[in-house]
TrEMBL record:
<keyword id="KW-0560">Oxidoreductase</keyword>
<comment type="similarity">
    <text>Belongs to the azoreductase type 2 family.</text>
</comment>
<feature type="domain" description="NADPH-dependent FMN reductase-like">
    <location>
        <begin position="4"/>
        <end position="147"/>
    </location>
</feature>
<dbReference type="InterPro" id="IPR029039">
    <property type="entry name" value="Flavoprotein-like_sf"/>
</dbReference>
<dbReference type="InterPro" id="IPR050712">
    <property type="entry name" value="NAD(P)H-dep_reductase"/>
</dbReference>
<dbReference type="GO" id="GO:0050625">
    <property type="term" value="F:2-hydroxy-1,4-benzoquinone reductase (NADH) activity"/>
</dbReference>
<dbReference type="InterPro" id="IPR005025">
    <property type="entry name" value="FMN_Rdtase-like_dom"/>
</dbReference>
<protein>
    <submittedName>
        <fullName>2-hydroxy-1,4-benzoquinone reductase</fullName>
        <ecNumber>1.6.5.7</ecNumber>
    </submittedName>
</protein>
<dbReference type="Pfam" id="PF03358">
    <property type="entry name" value="FMN_red"/>
</dbReference>
Length: 187
């Protein structure tokens, strides 16, 4: 049975490089089903609003994550860290504490940037947040895409660099294997 992967993009920008990377995933690994989980309409986290199922956008967001076998987060780095909109989304997915949708959820982290260092600092913070939510973050393998401007076609909004495409394909295939390992841990 094919795995259902949720893809969360940590940027709201219309021409987001990370959205371009996310859009490349289904064509590179077609053995899974993919669902893009939007974080655009989530309100700022406020514990006063976080009762029962939460506001409608939060309820739908949590339900979307719940229905997946694992989530891939594809995110830029802003000011040497996690984008605020993504941190907000992870905070909403981390409650209620004992039944949060991220508990024991397999997760992978990918990031692209025009800079030379990839999204190293952002990914460290994303991983730290996911660890705190009791998610199972794929260990060891990292997916940093630097100098993204040289690896995409801005007209077609596609990832065109063959080396990066192969690297991304291997990462997603490894993530599918990680989901299988996590499922055995949860039995």
């Amino acid at each position: 049975m094919s795995k259902r992967i949720g893809i969360i993009v940590g940027s709201l920008r219309e021409s987001s490089f990370n959205q371009m990377i996310a859009n490349s995933i289904p064509e590179l690994v077609d053995s899974a089903e993919y669902e893009y989980i939007s974080i655009a309409n989530l309100p700022l986290y406020n514990a006063d609003l976080d009762h029962e199922e939460g506001p409608d956008p939060v309820k739908h967001y949590r339900e979307a994550i719940e229905k997946t076998d694992g989530i891939l987060i594809v995110s830029p780095e802003y000011n040497s860290g996690i984008p605020g909109v993504l941190k907000n989304a992870l905070d909403w997915a981390s409650t209620p504490t004992k039944t949060a949708v991220l508990i024991h959820k397999p997760a992978g982290v990918i990031g692209a940037t025009p800079g030379a260092k990839g999204t190293i600092l952002s990914q460290q913070q994303i991983r730290q947040t996911l660890d705190a939510t009791l998610s199972y973050v794929m260990p060891a393998q990292k997916m940093y895409i630097s100098q993204i401007m040289d690896k995409i076609d801005s007209d077609t909004r596609k990832l065109t660099d063959d080396t990066t495409r192969k690297y991304l394909q291997r990462y997603v295939q490894s993530f599918l294997q990680w989901i299988n390992q996590v499922q055995r841990l949860n039995e």
